[in-house]
Design brief:
Helix content is 38%, strand content 15%. By secondary structure, it is α/β, with parallel strands linked by helices. A 7-stranded mixed sheet has the order 2-8-7-6-5-3-4, sandwiched between helices. A 3-stranded antiparallel sheet has the order 9-12-11, covered by helices on one side. The protein has a two-stranded parallel ribbon with strand order 1-10. 4'-deoxy-4'-aminopyridoxal-5'-phosphate binds next to helix 3.
């Protein structure tokens, strides 16, 4: 970090930087694809564009700070009370809010690693101590080890299912056994950013789990299956005191009117969006099968991406993909995550993978 004359929080030195997926460079010789940020490749639905256009006429006004219409729509859809719903500027915004309402400096947050790269960032920003518990050999959460990692200082546990960037879900029975071991006053957030892409019957019913347990929070987003990544809107289902605290900790007017109305229109159009999700799931399974046939040890994935645990060969694979006009997401020397995008991107990725394994 650059040296500063003014005094900044020393905690900032511990905050890792967020490295977003690079945009795909324009090339004269071929169409390039960005498959690095788990975005939905489909353009917005006409009904969503119409909602955005209508909202655009009123951007001289602040949005509804209470986000009431969207919260009501979510409450109705999921059979919870409107007071059990909180929204944020993306689910990553809600994660920050969750840290603020649970952790004093020095408190502990248990999470799996490797998982979503924003976790260590929001934890460090809050001055809390992250306790990263390694995934098991199948790239899945080791919920036994996570329960063992809980101490008197633990205030929050993050369970990411399906796990970004590796893909598998936690199993319902494992989650229940885990939750039985978590003290009642420790919040457990189930981050289901990729829920809609899941087809594994062993996955938990997070809402049923939430109803049965006062300390569970369910976190979801409009960025992936709903295709609204650019509008920054996520939501949490939480028991009333927690949801009220989350709303208190929100950036005032943080979810724009454009985002609120687009999210409502997307909920209304979910049947149409589900057809697209199904197509992406088919494409994901084609990619997973193809990569495994080539000899890659790809873990199961229930999300809109696949994980290639390539170790030291991670940067070389990312470079080979880029050469072929594909921007993928390398994570240090752990592996490469490739999002499901256009059919042509999948075809090309399989070709890159076939050439790479022969090297
Ligand atoms: N949780 C997980 C597991 C994610 O992968 C992401 C996005 N990469 C998010 C939360 C945040 O998504 P958003 O802020 O766009 O809702």
């Amino acid at each position: 970090s650059p040296t500063s004359v003014v005094r900044l929080r020393t905690t900032l030195d511990n905050v890792p930087g967020y490295v977003p997926g690079k945009p795909a460079a324009q090339r004269a010789d071929l169409t390039t694809y960005k498959i690095s940020s788990n975005e939905n490749p489909y353009p917005p639905l006409p009904s969503v564009i119409k909602a955005v256009q209508e909202a655009a006429l009123e951007i001289n006004r602040y949005p509804d700070m209470g986000v009431v219409a969207l919260r009501e729509a979510l409450a109705q859809r999921f059979g919870v009370g409107v007071d059990e719903v909180a929204t944020g500027t993306g689910s990553v915004g809600l994660l920050g809010q969750l840290l603020q309402i649970t952790c004093e400096p020095g408190d502990e947050v248990v999470y799996a690693w490797r998982s979503f790269e924003a976790y260590p960032i929001v934890i460090a920003l809050a001055g809390a101590n992250g306790v990263a518990v390694p995934l098991d050999s199948d790239s899945r959460h080791d919920l036994t080890a996570m329960a063992d990692a809980i101490t008197d200082r633990t205030r929050l546990v993050v369970v990411c299912t399906p796990n970004n960037p590796t893909g598998p879900v936690v199993h319902a029975d494992e989650l229940d056994a885990f939750l039985d071991r978590v003290p009642d006053d420790v919040v457990v957030v189930i981050d289901e950013a990729y829920l809609e892409f899941g087809r594994d019957h062993r996955a938990p019913d997070a809402l049923a789990t939430y109803r049965a347990r006062q300390n569970v929070v369910v976190l979801r987003t409009f960025s992936k299956a709903y295709g609204l990544a650019g509008l920054r809107v996520g939501y949490a289902i939480a028991h009333e005191p927690v949801a009220a605290a989350l709303r208190k900790a929100a950036t005032p007017f943080g979810v724009s009117d454009i985002a609120q109305r687009a999210a409502i229109a997307s909920l209304e159009a979910y049947d149409e969006l589900a057809v697209r999700v199904d197509a992406l799931v088919t494409e994901r399974d084609r990619l997973l099968t193809g990569l495994r046939q080539l000899g890659y040890a790809v873990p199961d994935t229930q999300a809109n991406f696949v994980w290639l645990p390539l170790g030291d060969r991670t940067p070389a694979f990312a470079a080979a993909a880029e050469e072929a006009g594909l921007v993928v997401r390398p994570f240090a020397t752990d592996g490469v995550r490739c999002s499901i995008g256009e059919v042509e991107a999948t075809d090309r990725l399989l070709q890159v993978a076939a050439d790479f394994i022969k090297r």
